Amino acid sequence: MWWHILKQESQFILSHDPVYLGIDVGTSSVKAGFVSQSGEGLLQASSEYPTYYGPGGQVEQEPWDWWNAVVQAVQSLTTRSPQLAKQVRSLAVSCQAPTLLGIDSDGAPVGRGLIWMDRRAEGVCRCVLSPHQDYIHQYSYNRIDPYYMLSKLVWQKQFAPDAYKKTDCYLQINGWILYQLTGKKLIDVSNANLTQFLNVDTLDWDETIFRLLDLDIQKMPSIVPCYYSAGPIRPDVAHLLGLPVGTLVAAGCVDGSAVPYGLGLEEEGAIFEMSGTSSGIGVICDTPYFNPKLSLMKHVKDDKWFLKGSTSCSGGSLVWFRDKVEQTQDPSCFPVYSALAEQSVPGANGVLFLPYLNGERAPLWDSKLRGVLLGFSSATEKKDLLRAIMEGTGYALRTILDEFPIEIVLHSAIHGTGGGYRSRIWSQIKADILQMPIQVIQQQYDAAVLGVACIAMEAAGTPREQQYISVPETIYVPDPSTVPVYQKQYHRFRRLYAATRDLFHCEE
Questions:
Q1: Is the pLDDT of residue 10 over 70?
Q2: Are 28 and 68 in contact (CB under 8 A)?
Q3: Less CB within 10 Å around the terminal CB: N or C of the chain?
Q4: Kind and range of the H or E element at 161?
Q5: Considering only the top CATH level, what class is 266-440+478-508?
């Protein structure tokens, strides 16, 4: 558990202005924070929970762990600042997605949740869903992949039929938290989209796919807008959390949708990157696009969408180097890594790194891929390895950027946020490789927490007062002198992937 104050708390308390609570249930922890109507982060806390890995690509988490972490994080806020807690008007929850989570008729979870990383449904995708792939692409605008809830649900009915029969309703993680807060069973439209059961054109469940796969549509909750007010928090839960009775609860959204909304990105063509353990880069669009190499995601705004690609191991590659190569867990090493990488040269003295340590999502969608390190010799130094890792994640992002529809990529800069942008050299490397300026919004506050707090504001009828991206802290401009070497290395990167891909599938 941790907390920090991001402004003079006493100054804000005296104003008695409304406060909004944003909660993000991520892949490894819950982050919760108080946010003012002007978009200032006031106080933030987090609480972690475990992930359970099993054979055949199984990746699960306990639903009660999510709820207990929410309770701990919010209690940390309300205990630390009872006055701010009294000023809370509304809250909303964002979450990692998609997840397969069933609850029974008594509201109890039917086993652990199968989170987005779970790959056990790969066989289902090949054998059951592939005959329907044209239709699935038509209504969902997304590819068939174990990532989506659709494949996981088909797997459950086939291989865990008792769990399927016992399930009364399927919820996403924020829907599970919403159920604990209000007793209502709902799903916001951004999460509904990532189940792959949503018809993008009608914004309702696609009845045909349920008939084709013999699935019960009655097990799905009602779809509502992200800013929909589900009503007040249950009084007993309000007392448990230390929040005012009557606090409104909004439906919330996918964490990936909360980020661009919190950054104020709504105009078509706006590009953003959230840089963390994994990295996602997206482009806002006014109409849905189908690209089998990318994910179509629903923006919080009713008439907006965005295409997004995610590389699974960006910052995670440096964590791997720290944990497995250096065999330490000292977080202070990351500034040292940046300083060392800066001592190397563009192209890392010929060293090339494919950052596919745990497979890859967009645009490759291949869980069997693994990392590759090419071109090191007895002369290679630590600084070259570190720079190669940073450059490799930049090349992976460029493979995503190259897939964006050229007709909507009109903006001249990328809006960057997240922990990866604390490194000056890594930020410059990405600007050079992507050949676009990067406007860094280096918030101390979690971007998803800010975004979902904005949803809470809207649900309460008090839209935010400002756009949070109005003043970027730093702008990284591509260095023209690096273009030749990075163009050459990027082509080598693509060729290296093509040359090694089949090696990871040799057992098939």
A1: no
A2: no
A3: C
A4: helix 161-166
A5: alpha beta
